[in-house]
């Protein structure tokens, strides 16, 4: 599907979808449990991949009409899957489930789509191998398809912290149900650290204790997953909140605001987007008790933003920088190149088609907003939900129509994204 956006002003209320990061962890944590109910779960292409895996491991995921997931888990001991585990486009699924598969007393095979088969899994495979598990890439390049043969008993292992925090999450979640537990020593500084904080929060909510150490993280073995009262509720997603928040900052109608609901504080690092938009000059009011954010349009100025801990915000920040006066410098961004696509290059190239001047380096992206005039163009969504949504924002204020190719991939994290834009007043057209 292609979507063509006509320049528009926005106003009204938007509800944040549930957090994708929390939903992945909650579904798998419920799988590790005997049984659990997950409320307010995001039901997207990515999280459905995790749910399918729980079922392949011997569990059952029943989705009710109100979105509640009733999950019968595999109680810490996954079955050997009767089929290949297809993680589709979900990197989170593949990494978290690779460690879960290592608990099975047998062999699991994991794969995904073309994009996912290009993403790095080597450090996690090496860590599992060091813990006594047979863990291999079929092509010998550290990328899927993966073959994992357990069972995993636990132990101490070192792993880099600057490739993906999801490796740490995967091992901590699996380590809780091993005999020995797992102690992780980080070989390098941890990037995307707030995502591990999310993991620790979800583990605690499921009754599992894990903690930071002087050199990394550790989780004792022999624990059981069981949320208080048998239920867990997923909070709103600040990665997704970034899009209506930015839309209000650049395109709110004169004298109007965009209100985002479902924005309660949590461990999500991407809540930094509120401060970033405010620093750039937008009028932002976050009522944390009520979980609402009100934003209105104002002239924006370029700033410097470090995305070491918030890689998913880079596309949104890049679009804000294209509208702002002066330069917006996004730093510590090399790990953003290893997402569904190389998001650093993708934003530089696609915004470039819209007349935006950029300077791209291996670990940074400079957006020269003051030297740019946003013009409507046909751009590629790169089969990446965050690129698609960020480019859609640019289309709100570009001179002329903007067509985003492959726009249906927003379903990975934000089903209903374009419907939400229309509710806020955006004029758009879908074409098959």
Automatic annotation (TrEMBL):
PANTHER family: AROM/DEHYDROQUINATE SYNTHASE, PENTAFUNCTIONAL AROM POLYPEPTIDE. The active site is at residue 312. Belongs to the EPSP synthase family. Residues 7-420 form the Enolpyruvate transferase domain. Its EC number is 2.5.1.19. Keywords: Amino-acid biosynthesis, Aromatic amino acid biosynthesis, Cytoplasm, Transferase. Monomer. Signal peptide: none annotated. The keyword Transferase applies. It holds the Pfam family EPSP_synthase. SUPFAM superfamilies: EPT/RTPC-like. It is found in: Cytoplasm. This is 3-phosphoshikimate 1-carboxyvinyltransferase. Catalyzes the transfer of the enolpyruvyl moiety of phosphoenolpyruvate (PEP) to the 5-hydroxyl of shikimate-3-phosphate (S3P) to produce enolpyruvyl shikimate-3-phosphate and inorganic phosphate. It is an enzyme of class 2 (transferase). It comes from Natrinema hispanicum. 3-phosphoshikimate binds at residues 20-21, 25, 164-166, 192, 312, 339. GO terms for cellular component: cytoplasm. It comes from the Archaea. GO terms for biological process: amino acid biosynthetic process; aromatic amino acid family biosynthetic process; chorismate biosynthetic process. Phosphoenolpyruvate binds at residues 20, 91, 119, 166, 343, 386. Pathway: Metabolic intermediate biosynthesis; chorismate biosynthesis; chorismate from D-erythrose 4-phosphate and phosphoenolpyruvate: step 6/7.
């Amino acid at each position: 599907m292609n979507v063509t956006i006509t320049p528009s002003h926005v106003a009204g209320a938007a509800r944040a979808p549930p957090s994708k990061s929390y939903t992945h962890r909650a579904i798998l944590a419920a799988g590790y449990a005997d049984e659990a109910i997950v409320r307010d779960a995001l039901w997207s292409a990515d999280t459905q991949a995790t749910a399918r895996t729980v079922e392949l491991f011997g569990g059952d995921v029943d989705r009710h009409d109100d979105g509640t997931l009733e999950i019968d888990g595999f109680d810490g001991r996954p079955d050997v899957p009767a089929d290949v585990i297809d993680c589709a486009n979900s990197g989170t699924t593949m990494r978290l489930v690779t460690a879960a598969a290592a608990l099975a007393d047998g062999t699991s095979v994991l794969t995904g789509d073309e994009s996912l088969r290009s993403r790095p899994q080597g450090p996690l495979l090496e860590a599992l191998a060091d813990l006594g598990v047979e863990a291999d890439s079929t092509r010998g390049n550290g990328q899927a398809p993966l073959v994992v043969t357990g069972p995993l008993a636990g132990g101490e292992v070192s792993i880099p912290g600057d490739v993906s925090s999801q490796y740490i999450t995967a091992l901590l979640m699996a380590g809780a149900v091993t005999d020995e537990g797992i102690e992780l020593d980080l070989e390098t500084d941890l990037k995307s650290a707030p995502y591990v904080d999310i993991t620790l929060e979800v583990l605690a909510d499921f009754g599992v204790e894990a903690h930071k150490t002087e050199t990394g993280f550790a989780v004792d073995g022999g624990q059981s997953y069981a949320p208080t009262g048998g239920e867990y509720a997923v909070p709103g997603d600040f990665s997704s909140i970034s899009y209506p928040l930015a839309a209000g900052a650049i395109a709110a109608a004169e004298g109007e605001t965009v209100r985002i609901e479902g924005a309660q504080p949590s461990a999500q690092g991407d809540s930094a987007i509120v401060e970033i938009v405010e620093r750039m000059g937008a009028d932002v009011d976050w009522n944390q008790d009520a979980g609402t954010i009100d934003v209105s349009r104002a002239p924006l100025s370029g700033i410097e933003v470090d995305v070491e801990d918030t890689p998913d915000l880079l596309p949104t920040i890049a679009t804000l920088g294209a509208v702002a006066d002066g330069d917006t410098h996004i730093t510590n961004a090399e790990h953003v190149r290893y997402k569904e696509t190389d998001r650093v290059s993708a934003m530089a190239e696609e915004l470039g088609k819209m007349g935006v001047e950029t300077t791209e380096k291996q670990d940074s992206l400079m957006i020269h907003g003051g030297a740019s005039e946003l013009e409507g163009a046909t751009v590629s969504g790169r089969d990446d939900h965050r690129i698609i949504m960020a480019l859609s924002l640019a289309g709100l204020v570009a001179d002329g129509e903007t067509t985003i190719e492959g726009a249906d991939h927003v379903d990975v994290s934000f089903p209903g994204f374009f419907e939400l834009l229309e509710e806020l007043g955006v004029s758009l057209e879908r074409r098959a």
